[in-house]
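Reproducibility note. Readers wishing to regenerate the assembly model reported in the main text can use the exact inputs given here. Chain order matters: entities are listed in the order in which they were concatenated for prediction.
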Amino acid sequence: MKILVPFKSVPDPNDATVVGAAASTPKSVINPFDEIAIEEALRIRERGEAAEIVGITIGAPTVDEQIRAALAMGVDRAIRIDDSRALDPYAVARILRVLIEKEAPHVVIMGKQAVDDDSNQVGQMLAGLLRWPQATFVSKIEFLGNKTRARCTRETDAGLEVIEIKLPAIITTDLRLNEPRYVSLPGLMKARRKSIEVLTCDQLGVTVRPLTTVISTARPPKRAAGTRVESVEELVTKLRQEAKVL
Amino acid sequence: MAESLVLIEHHRQQVKRPSLHAITLARKLGGEYALLVLGHRLDGIAASLVSYGACAVVVADDPALAKPLADRYATVIAEAARKRGAKTILGTSSTFSKDVLPRAAALLDAPMVTDVVAVEEMDGSISYRRPINAGSMFAIVKVEGDRRVLTVRGTAFEAPAADAAPCPIKRFDFDAASLPNGIQFISREERKSDRPDLTEARVVVSGGRPLKDKETFERLVGGLADALGGAIGATRAAVDAGMAPNDYQIGQTGKVVAPELYIALGISGAIQHLAGIKDSRIIVAINKDPDAPIFQMATYGLVGDLHRIVPQLIESIRRA
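Running the prediction on these inputs yields the following structure tokens for the assembly.
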């Protein structure tokens, strides 16, 4: 089985200083949900159900650092689509679609959303464009029927849901699917010898233009800190008389 | 015809109330709007939707739609949007709409904006405001093209009034036999609870890791929620530690709530969690760490041991 994992490079969400700090150069990492997707692909290969894992990302050469990290985790080879425009999810889905048709994987595993723009669209759009089945917000994957189907547990608002999808299909990962491994030193050494193929949209024969544009960003007004209370009695009194919620 | 099509969600023969909030945005956008509901045996649901000022309640009712399978639902939604000439297709942000609407957008060759919290009009064109970076920033987004798909944050829009003259219910006919067949429903965990739904509750009591275990969580968080007639929420840490089920998680990747009263027990206030609660009217934080970030946004903060404080609080509320 061949697994394709699209991933995005995002500002490190654990670095509080990077948010909105345009002047500094924020540290970038693999989108945490995509890292979970990579880890899942590795586990599937390790249990003998996959032969190859191909990583794909879109961006300028600066994202090569995250590609190296993916290769160091154990991805077999990587493709970077050289495009430094501010693409929207639908543009990303249309580009990935062409590459997926070319690579013809059995399954595509990717994060449910990127933690920078929080859109939660690309996987579903990709499935729609390809007319492939989809399983979103997945916390468990099991292959059945000689790898013709996948049984997926989904995290929904109403609780856990189990569906079966025919392959090829798109699976998007939720937090509890796994805990990604740390990159090992031998992994890093090996990653240096792995190739990164660079393609352009022209070479792929795909012309897309983003249809949504971020005109501006702003910080939301800060919620004012309230009062410290000293006791349960004081709290209940305030809730009753001041806030009138009891 | 500049019509909007609002996707309405239902569960166990009941309309999911937050999904009605998208109607409020459809009204703001102007023009006629229709409500779209998909499923099987929808007569009761459809009848309950006629007074929301829509031009029609469009019903796609078929055994093939008995379960919310994304490939089938997206196909029917896209077909309904095309047939009605809908320019804006919208639903309230939920795992359901986030599963089916981006797929429908791709089938319609239309862009999509997730989690809209406000619309702004500038020089005759509409832009949308949405939270990014776990709610620490807002982006103003402009959309090109004459068709778009939106999900809206239910907490950012009021519930619409159901006071209009009844509109017609229109059956949407489609070829069920030609629907995709790549996804099969197997099971869903059904949990019985007498407590209100997390995203609809007036009061939410939420717990973090210091609750220690499932029993303590239920006794303190559950006990306080019951004393207040509220719902239960949890942080990611509490969910990961097995103290609460996954769908109780509040925050960036969980649910967004905006109740009248939110009580945070043993929650330090990670940005991912705060993203899900910051529009609550009153926030109460009880935490033993006086420097916990949650105190910076809490309306009322009480520093102390929740194992001692919460039973007192339950007692005090029950006494009144």
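We highlight two features of this model. The longest helix of chain B spans residues 70-84. Chain B touches chain A through 85 residues (CB under 8 Å).
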